[in-house]
Amino acid sequence: MTKADPLRPLRLVLVAGARPNFMKVAPLLRAFRRRPGRFDVRLVHTGQHYDDAMSDVFFEELGIPRPDIHLGVGSASHALQTARVMEAFERVLDEEHPDWVVVVGDVNSTAGCSLVAAKMTPRVRVAHVEAGLRSRDRDMPEEVNRLVTDVLSDLLFTTSADADRNLLDEGIDRRRIHRVGNVMIDTLKRFVRLSDGADVRRRLGISGRYALLTLHRPANVDDEAVLRRILDALVAIGRDVPVIFPAHPRTAKRLAAFGLQAGRLPGADGLAEAGVRVIAPLGYLDFLHLQKRAALILTDSGGIQEEATILGVPCLTLRDNTERPITVARGTNRLVGRDTRGIVEAARRVLRARRRPRPPRIPLWDGRAAERIAAVFARLPR
Ligand code: UD1
């Protein structure tokens, strides 16, 4: 088969590396594999996340087939982790010679694989799913990954109009940008009913109202003073409702290293006594079950701001900025920063409110984004 054969399937390499990628590749893989004559797809897992709870459980629950290729890069400093991804991924492209590399999100694997593809001879084209998001905060590693990936991408699939504008402002050719919606919401819509049956509340012994917390950004958990201010807020909120806290491995390590979990907190002997329940990371269905029923979500994640918006659950984001402004403008999200008082006051306001916000309808966040992406690829010349 030659490159110009109009009937041959388009050869795609789809990359996933870390937890927030898995719910994005699941619908893409399904959409591509639905048309075997059009697409020949390989799934590559870089191994950036490798624990069962951070990786395997998502493959099982979301029905993602085993990766065709696993790079096993693991954890390391940013430079080393990205370098390992690049070294291993170059060998994949040498063997596979795909027409396109498809990357999602903004993790180190996203940027590393894009850079490898862009530097192959001949160049392998890059498609970025969830392009154009900008926090304008270059201290965030993800912001650097987003900028690098977008500048190298030949096709940029966006979730919202603000992302299109960001890309156009950066001089990206309008013809490369396709607003298709949100693949992560494809997965939410597909699995939300199944998650209704999860027994996580029974397992955790939760009967009434609760707040759900996630926290893992280096800016929030690596600095003891900042983490302590956030924990002080949680202890205050924990007096009103239990705070369920599935802790990311990075955060669990920091809590242990700073000695914060069992004591040394003003007004509490330990987090558990203060109503803050630190538990192991949860799988997709359990977490979605808890999100949907939470009185309040507190988070520093990107994706959870979007999921909370679609579920109509009030979300307080423990950051000063967001790359997902539509969740504030149209959704349930509020930026509350990292100061104890601001977090506690915002949480109390939510908990006092009589009504929950109505879930907004965001155009194209309808469960069909991956289908639209596959349709764009299907129209490309071979
Ligand atoms: C990464 C992404 C971040 C994403 C987050 C979701 C980058 C720069 N960051 O951050 O955008 O929001 O994933 O979780 O790509 N660890 C384990 N087991 C694992 C994975 C990690 O124990 O399976 C521990 C390791 O100690 C590691 C630390 O967590 O050093 C951080 O992992 P890393 O992949 O470097 O970044 P995340 O903080 O997970």
Keyword list:
382 residues; alpha/beta; Rossmann fold; 2 domains; seven-stranded parallel sheet; globular; binds uridine-diphosphate-N-acetylglucosamine
Class by SSE composition: alpha/beta
Distance between the termini: 11 Å
Query: What is the CATH level 1 assignment of the largest domain?
Result: Alpha Beta
Give the SSE string.
EHEHEHEHEHEHEHHEHHEHEHEHEHEHH
> What is the CATH T-level topology of the largest domain?
Rossmann fold
CATH structural architecture of the largest domain? 3-Layer(aba) Sandwich
**Heteromolecules bound:** uridine-diphosphate-N-acetylglucosamine
**Strand element count:** 13
Strand content: 5-15%
**Tally of DSSP helical segments:** 16
A few lines on this structure:
With 382 residues, the chain is α/β, with parallel strands linked by helices. The chain folds into two domains: 10-182 and 365-378, Rossmann fold (3-Layer(aba) Sandwich); 196-352, 3-Layer(aba) Sandwich (Rossmann fold), CATH 3.40.50.
Describe, in plain words, how this protein is organized in 3D:
With 382 residues, the chain is of the alpha/beta class. It has 2 domains: 10-182 and 365-378, Glycogen Phosphorylase B (Rossmann fold); 196-352, Rossmann fold. Helices cover 44% and strands 14% of the residues. The protein has helices spanning 19-33, 56-62, 78-96, 108-118, 141-152, 161-169, 183-196, 200-204, 218-221, 224-238, 249-257, 284-293, 303-311, 326-329, 340-352, 369-379, and strands at residues 10-16, 39-45, 69-70, 100-104, 125-129, 155-158, 177-179, 211-213, 243-246, 276-279, 296-299, 315-317, 333-335. Strands 3-2-1-4-5-6-7 form a 7-stranded parallel beta sheet, sandwiched between helices. Helix 1 crosses helix 7 (183-196), helix 3 packs across helix 4 (108-118) and helix 10 packs parallel to helix 15 (340-352). The longest helix is centred in the N-terminal third of the chain and has 19 residues, at 78-96. It is globular, with a radius of gyration of 21 Å.
